[in-house]
Amino acid sequence: MSSANPLWGSPRIVGELAKVGIHLAKATVEKYMVRPKKSPSPTWRAFLDNHVRELASVDFFLVPTVNFKVLFIFLVLVHLRRRIVHFNVTEHPTAQWTAQQLSEAFPWEAAPRYLVRDRDRVYGPAFKERVQCLGIEQVLTAPRSPWQNPFAERVIGSIRRECLDHVIVVHERHLRTLPGDYFVHYHRWRCHRSLAMDCPTPRPVHGPELGRVVEVAETGGLYRHYERRAA
Description:
By secondary structure, the chain is an alpha/beta fold. It has helices at 10-18, 26-32, 44-50, 95-105, 125-133, 150-162, 172-188, and strands at 55-64, 70-78, 83-90, 114-117, 137-140, 212-218, 223-229. 32% of the residues lie in helices and 21% in strands. Helix 1 packs across helix 2 and helix 4 packs parallel to helix 5.
């Protein structure tokens, strides 16, 4: 009982045992209680799991071009189904620009309840004001703790490994095209372990009755998917 309910103290357990006909002294219960190894307070992972339907994350990451110019990609990720609802590219991110991206990501009162972000200075007063106007509560990660924004960090890692690490970015327009093509693949075809090997846009199972399995190359063969097609 104490293992299953780490927030219960000995008086609560004494009372609960009495309701099932077991009468023990408080000292006896305290002697045999299992002491939790970790704090009984909810963990950060528990917060993310409990509010997954109401959470979104934002983050920036850097991409160098062929002539050593550094560009910034801004992502907005909805945790439920791991959908990337918006992205944009800029050379000079500002709080006003970032605030506008958030408005474009959540039009028509579609904003989530919580927004997870880091403490970058780009999220300045203009951004905070826009978040407040949208009725979103900001959840700030601890300094130098990217692991506290795991969904966004994992998506960024996938974008690098599966797309950007295999090409040389020429300029800003080129960088806008590359992730856009990848996100079509990401949402429609890429299986995710966190989604029970489904895609952000649910992907139907193709049975043998639909034809033979064919390999479909996307973006010049940069990534592929498989489906059944009738001969």
